[in-house]
Design a protein that fits this description.
alpha/beta, 8-stranded mixed sheet, globular
Length: 244
């Protein structure tokens, strides 16, 4: 994950707030070329062969080498928590599943993977020296995560129960939305989170995706939170670009 946190940043990542994203790729060097050109990212090596991406010298994401070619090529969003193990207990009780039990990542923190009742995968992050994004809500950085669900009422109950304060509390400024899968994707597409990165011009960014060897799945289209384009990189990982 990324650099040491400050107390102000730590305070921003209360439980249930998206605090990090990473991509599992077969070819990390190719990922650096694709996303480096698309978003203006620079890269530095990190824990366990992962590379961190930086925009304006501040951490925005990580690219990780897939350990098994059968694993999906995918972007994952991580939600902050002060206690990953306790949260996994609550996830199971609410009808979700734990894919990967909490495990330390050096001194950086503790990570885990889980699914909601419909099978959408998300990560948990308990901070150590790394609290989360060094930069977000800006071009070339994380701005939004949309959950495409089969049953949005089930999703609201599950995530609202886990992360009520982050989603609905008096100080909530949620970076997560929920929509039916069929809003954008074919009906057979499984429920999933779609990570959105900020851009100045959505149409121009989609043009760059095509130039770099990726492809466009949908858009540009207007939403309540901005103009969105859904794309797939040159290795098969889906993501979105968001112009606000």
């Amino acid at each position: 994950m990324a650099e040491n946190s400050t107390s102000a940043r730590e305070a921003a990542y209360t439980e249930g707030v998206p605090c990090w994203v990473d991509a599992q790729l077969a070819d990390v060097a190719a990922g650096e070329r694709f996303y480096g050109e698309l978003f203006g990212w620079s890269f530095r090596p990190s824990h366990g062969g992962t590379v961190w991406a930086y925009r304006e010298g501040r951490s925005v994401a990580a690219l990780a080498q897939k350990t098994d070619g059968r694993l999906p090529t995918v972007w994952t969003v991580y939600f902050a928590t002060p206690d990953a193990r306790a949260l996994t207990v609550r996830i199971r009780a609410a009808g979700g599943q734990v894919v990967t039990a909490p495990v330390p990542v050096g001194e950086l923190g503790v990570t885990a993977l889980a699914t909601d009742p419909e099978g959408a995968v998300f990560g948990l992050w308990q901070p150590g020296t790394h609290a989360g994004f060094g930069l977000r809500h800006a071009p070339g950085a994380f701005v939004w995560a949309e959950l495409y669900a089969r049953d949005t009422a089930t999703a609201n109950t599950f995530y609202g129960g886990l992360f009520h304060d982050a989603l609905f509390g008096p100080d909530a400024e949620p970076d997560v939305g929920r929509a039916p899968v069929t809003t954008v994707f074919p009906a057979l597409m499984p429920p999933h989170f779609l990570v959105h990165f900020g851009v100045v011009d959505c149409a121009a960014a989609l043009g760059e995706v095509t130039r770099l060897g990726g492809r466009i799945q949908a858009g540009p289209f207007d939403t309540s939170y901005g103009t969105v384009g859904v794309a797939v990189d040159d290795q098969g990982a889906s993501f979105a670009v968001l112009q606000r």
